[in-house]
Write a structure and sequence with these properties.
This is DUF6310 domain-containing protein. This protein has 306 residues and is α/β, with parallel strands linked by helices. 43% of the residues lie in helices and 11% in strands. The chain has two domains: 122 residues, no CATH class; 155 residues, no CATH class.
Amino acid sequence: MRFRRCGALLLLLVFSACASSTPPPNERGTWNPRLANLQRAAELPWTDGGRCVVREASQPWPALVEKCYRTLDRDRIEFHDTTGRCSIASADAATVGLGFCVLAAPEIAVGAVIVLGVVVVGVAIKEALNAYEFRHAYPEEAGTSRGTEVSSREAEAQRKPKSKPDPAGQDWFPPAPTDPMDRERRLECRPVPVPHRGGNDPHNDCADLLPQNSFPGWDVLVNGKQFDALVLVTRTLWDVKTDAFEKHNLHSQQFFAKVKLPELQRERRLAEACGYKFVVGVRSAAHKAALEKLDNTLAVVVMDWC
């Protein structure tokens, strides 16, 4: 209760300064407070991976800090009241901590918050930022990404034509090509998150743990093919193989690799046709060697995370 009373007093001081930091009217149309909060929080270390931040991101920044301050890794942060604003708080408010007052400011002054060491963006914050990026870049597909496998082609067919191009969309996509077939191919290349195929939890868990996976918990539909993972920052699609390959004898290993190779090569062609790189993830060096022996142009990586 004491923390809440002190926090309320500090918030009163902070909110009084918020009016001056509100974006001007001509900027409000493009200013997204939730995104701004997520980007701001991404620069700080959190003990819960940022789950509290994501949950409270739609609140004003001072309210978010009040809710999530306890989940901040304060051992890695130094707070400095460079403006002297926090020194006017009451003695009771001071007991909450200088850090809370400094961090809750609408705009953090230079040198007020110093993070020790390299900050790894919290998993929950990273997922939320990736999801925002996807929804903003691919609005049609974002509407189908939760629990449905409707393709981009179907979404486009159901959408009513516009009399004029959407100016906002031109920031992300070039003008529609005049060739209908080319336009259709481009739509098929837009990634659509779809639910994992059921029945193989270890396989799905391995795909979800892939470093920088942009959509953990989901497969990604691209060019008519459901891939196990997508890393947007490198534009790489993945097919994950979790077979106990090394437990089989050499003859069985060679047979297994030869049977699977045509499908892997087809997946690579589909990915490359849309401008993506393609990587096969395997669990053993033996599996990697067998595939590379059959096709040395195939990118194969041993997954040390699963």
